[in-house]
Structure of GH16 domain-containing protein:
Amino acid sequence: NGEFQYYTDRTDNAFVKDGILNIRAVREDFDQNSFTSARMVSRNLGDWKYGRFQARARLQNCTAVGTWPAIWMLPTQWAYGGWPSSGEIDILEHVGYDLGNIHGSVHTAAFNHLIGTQKGGTWTTAVEDWHVYEIIWSEEKIQFVFDGLKYFEFLKLADATYEEWPFDKDFHLILNIAVGGSWGGLKGVDYGAFEGNGQVMEID
C-alpha cells in the first residue's frame, strides 16, 4: 500500500500502560523506512468463524495527517486465493486528513475499492473519546456497530459464491497504525507530528 512504516516487535511501539494497550507510530529512520510502528496479529493464536468482536479504543493521539490506524480481520488460510478473493473485514479505519470519520467495510473479489465496488459505512464522531467498535458476524450477514448503534450491514446474497461472500472461513484480528500509504497518505504526511511521543492508538 505504499506505506512508510517499519513494523517492529519492540516495546517502544507496542506496550501496556495502566491497563491500556498502546500502539505507537514514531518518526525514526529504521531499515530504510522513515517511521516505526506496531502491527499486532492474532493468527494461529486467535482465529474465528462467526461471532461478535468488540474493541474499546481511543484515537485522541492518533489524528495527524498521514496516520492510518485500523482494527481489522484477514483470513487465516486464504482458502479462496490472495487478496481480496479470501476477504477482509475492517472493523475500524480512520485516516488523519479526514478527521472524525470512522469507517467499517468489507473487501471481496466482487466488492473492493480497486474496481469501485467496495461495501462499507462511515460514522462521524469525536475521536478524542473512548468508543466501542464492533462487528456481529453470522452465516448470512456482517453488522457494523458503533457504541451500540448499527451503521452498516453487509448481507450474503442468496446465490452468493466466494466472490461475494468468502466469510465462511476462519479469520484473525490485526491492530496497527500505518503511516502514509494509498489512503492514509493521500494528502501527505505531517512528519513533525510523529516526533517525540509520536501517534498512539489506545485499546482498552
The longest strand covers residues 20-30. The chain is about 0% helix and 50% strand. The chain has a mean pLDDT of 98.
